[in-house]
Automatic annotation (TrEMBL):
This is DsbA family protein. Residues 77-237 form the Thioredoxin-like fold domain. Keywords: Disulfide bond, Membrane, Oxidoreductase, Redox-active center, Signal, Transmembrane, Transmembrane helix. Residues 61-75 have a biased composition (Low complexity). Residues 1-29, 58-78 are annotated as: Disordered. It comes from the Bacteria.
Amino acid sequence: MSQKSRADGSARERLQAQREKEKARARRGRQAKVAGAVVVVLAVAAGIALWASSTGEDKSAPVAAPKGATGGAKPMVTVGEKSAPSTLQVWEDFRCPACKQFETGFRSTLHELQDNGQLRTDYHLALLIDGNMGGKGSLNAGNAALCAQSAGKFRDYHDVLFSNQPPEQQDKYASKKYLIQLAGKVPGLVTQDFRSCVQDGKYNGFVQKSQEAFQGGGFQGTPTVLLNGKNLFADQSAQMTPQKLKQMVLDANKKK
């Protein structure tokens, strides 16, 4: 076996192992939440009407969306030409180690396909690690990435966040100061508008709406990656590589 084949196999094994860890952690989190809900459900039921009337919050109200992003029930940021023949849907979390493995391993291939007009990538943000581990790093990093989208620099900052991802147990992305510091790696991104956007959590609602869509979609973990609607990691025995993904895109485009 060549060194490249061994490296691809090792990367796939690490990605699969990390995804299994995320699924197990998510199951434990759900079980704990259910147990807690049994205790408090009556109190919540009694107080929910009073809470709703006092806050006046309207869950159906539209949330702020950055320039060029798509709101609605499944908020997303599109990278690449919207008219591209193939679409890759990516549900990911900036704190998720498996997401980092996917993004860093497939990055050059995705960029090539996006830049050549072969593929559009619709990014949906999730808050899986915040929910499982606690903290606000997933939310704050997601908002910062959307602030970068408003400045026309989403892809560059998105890649910086994954390249500099802290260990899962360290909620370093909860620090808005650190997120702004990382933005300095993207030329021209750090402006007063960007700083204010990050500090104010301007697009928190957009990220939270995306998380609701993730939960409602029945997905098992992050990253969830669908090419033209097909889940690329649904078959755990399949060996997905950047080269195979590229060929799948090119073959699909020939049929359109």
